[in-house]
Design goal:
- By secondary structure, the chain is an all-alpha fold.
- It is 81% helix and 0% strand.
- It has helices at residues 3-13, 16-47, 55-82, 85-105, 109-125, 127-138, 143-172, 174-195, 217-225, 228-259, 263-293, 299-320, 324-342, 345-350, 358-373, 376-387, 389-413, 415-418.
- It is globular.
Length: 432
C-alpha cells in the first residue's frame, strides 16, 4: 500500500480533528490529575518528617499554586494568539509534568513551592487557552461536542487521581504518586511533539505563507473588553466556579462531620457521584447545543443558563438534607447540570470572539475566575463558624442563580449584538 493510500485510509478511519481531541483529552486528564495529586497525598506529606510541613505551610503551597496560575494564564492566552499553539500546549505539558516529577523528589517547603506551585502551576496555566483554541480551530459544526468530550477529562482526571494517587501513596509512599503521573505526562508530551498539528488556514492571521501575525496588545484588549457578552460570560463563570471551589474544598468535611463517614469514604462520595454525572451532562449538553446551533444562534448561552438554574435546587438540598443517600442523589443532580453548563462554557465565548483573539479571551476569563474563586474556601470557612457548614453549602445555590440571571440578561440584551458570524470565514484545514 502506498503512502498516499495509507494516509487516505487513516483520514477515513479517524479524521485529524478527532485525533486532536484524543491527544488533548489525555493531556487535560494529566493536567487535572497532577493538580489533584497534592491534595490526595497531603495527609502523608504532613506526616513526613523530612518535609517539616504544618497545615499553614501546606496551605501556602496550594495558595501559591493558585495565584501563579491566575497571573500566568492570561500570558498563556496571549502567547497562544501570537505563537504556534502546538508548541504552547506541548511546552506546557512538559513543564508541569517535569514539575510534578521534581515535586516528588523535593525535601522541603522551598522545593514544593518551586516545583509544585511555580513549575506545575505555571505550566498548567499555559495549556487551557491554546488547547481550546486548537479545538475551535478544527471543529466548527461539532465545536460544543468536541469541547464537551475534552471536558470529560477533567472529571476522569479528578476521580483517577483520587483512586490511583491514594493507593500509590499508601502502598509505596507519597513520592511514587508524583513520579507516576509526572512521568507519564513527559512521555505524552514527546508523543504530542510528533502528532499535534496547528494549521491556521481558517484564521485571518494566516495570510502570508502560514505566518502568524502578531496582534497588538491594545487591539486585543479592545476587541475583548468592549463586548458586554464577554463580561457577562466571565461573571457567570465566576459565580459557577465560586460554587465549585466551595464544594470541592468543604464537601468531604461536611460528609465526614454530618454522616460520620471515614475520610476515605467521605472523599470518594463527595467526588464520585458528582463527577460521573457531570461527564454525562457535558456530553448531553454538547450534543444538544451542536444540533440546535445551526438553527438558533443563542442556544449555547441558553444551555449554560439552563445548567445553572436547574443545578441550583440540587445544591440547596445537598446541604440541607438529613439523609446521606438523598445527599448523594443531589450531588449527582448538581453534577449533571454542572456538566450541562460546562459543555458550552468556551463554545459560547467563541460565539462572540474572533478566532485570532480566542486564546487570549480564554486566558483573561480564567484569570478573573481564578482570582475571584480563591475567596470561596475562606468565605465558606467563615460561614461554617457563623451559620454551620450545612447552611453554608446550601447558600452556594445563590451563586448559581445569580450566574443564571446574568446569562439571561446577556442573552436578551447583548449576545446578538456581539455575535461573531463565522459563515464567511475561509474553509477550515484538511480534516476539519
Amino acid at each position: 500500500m502506498t503512502d498516499t493510500k495509507m494516509t487516505e485510509t487513516k483520514k477515513t478511519w479517524l479524521p485529524y480533528k478527532w485525533e486532536l481531541i484524543i491527544l488533548l483529552w489525555f493531556a487535560f486528564l494529566f493536567n487535572m490529575a497532577d493538580r489533584q495529586v497534592y491534595n490526595v497525598v497531603l495527609p502523608l506529606l504532613l506526616k513526613d518528617p523530612t518535609l517539616n510541613l504544618d497545615p499553614v505551610k501546606a496551605g501556602l503551597v496550594a495558595s501559591v499554586f493558585l495565584w501563579v496560575y491566575s497571573v500566568l494564564v492570561p500570558v498563556g492566552g496571549y502567547l497562544g494568539d501570537i505563537a504556534r499553539r502546538k508548541w504552547v500546549v506541548v511546552g506546557s505539558l512538559m513543564l508541569w509534568s517535569v514539575g510534578t516529577v521534581l515535586s516528588g523528589a523535593t525535601t522541603g517547603l522551598i522545593g514544593l513551592v518551586l516545583f509544585r506551585s511555580i513549575a506545575t502551576g505555571g505550566g498548567e496555566a499555559f495549556y487551557f487557552p491554546s488547547a481550546n483554541s486548537l479545538i475551535a480551530q478544527y471543529h466548527k459544526k461539532t465545536r460544543a461536542l468536541a469541547m464537551s468530550i475534552h471536558q470529560t477529562a477533567l472529571y476522569v482526571g479528578i476521580i483517577a487521581s483520587g483512586f490511583v494517587a491514594g493507593w500509590l501513596g499508601e502502598k509505596f509512599g507519597w513520592r511514587a504518586a508524583f513520579f507516576l503521573f509526572g512521568g507519564i505526562g513527559v512521555v505524552l508530551a514527546l508523543i504530542m511533539c510528533w502528532r499535534l498539528k496547528d494549521d491556521r488556514h481558517e484564521e485571518e492571521d494566516a495570510a502570508k505563507s502560514g505566518a502568524i501575525q502578531r496582534v497588538p496588545l491594545r487591539e486585543l484588549l479592545k476587541a475583548i473588553a468592549t463586548k458586554p457578552t464577554v463580561w457577562a460570560l466571565s461573571l457567570a463563570f465566576c459565580c459557577f466556579y465560586f460554587a465549585q471551589i466551595g464544594y470541592i474544598t468543604w464537601m468531604p468535611t461536611y460528609l465526614s462531620e454530618k454522616f460520620n463517614l471515614s475520610l476515605k469514604n467521605a472523599g470518594f462520595s463527595s467526588m464520585f457521584y458528582h463527577h460521573v454525572a457531570a461527564a454525562v451532562g457535558v456530553l448531553l449538553g454538547g450534543r444538544v447545543a451542536d444540533m440546535l446551533a445551526q438553527r438558533r444562534r443563542t442556544v449555547r448561552i441558553e444551555v449554560e443558563m439552563f445548567g445553572l438554574f436547574f443545578g441550583a435546587p440540587f445544591i440547596y438540598f445537598m446541604g440541607s438534607t438529613g439523609s446521606f443517600w438523598t445527599c448523594c442523589l443531589c450531588l449527582a443532580g448538581f453534577g449533571l447540570f454542572r456538566g450541562v453548563y460546562d459543555s458550552n462554557l468556551y463554545a459560547a465565548l467563541f460565539d462572540v470572539i474572533e478566532p485570532r483573539y480566542r486564546s487570549s479571551a480564554v486566558g483573561l476569563m480564567l484569570a478573573v475566575v481564578f482570582f475571584f474563586s480563591a475567596f470561596a474556601p475562606v468565605v465558606l470557612g467563615w460561614a461554617k463558624v457563623k451559620i454551620g457548614l450545612s447552611a453554608a453549602l446550601s447558600m452556594l445555590s445563590l451563586a448559581y442563580v445569580i450566574g443564571g440571571l446574568i446569562l439571561l440578561f446577556a442573552r436578551n440584551r447583548t449576545f446578538m449584538r456581539d455575535y461573531y458570524d463565522e459563515s464567511a470565514a475561509p474553509a477550515p484545514a484538511a480534516g476539519a
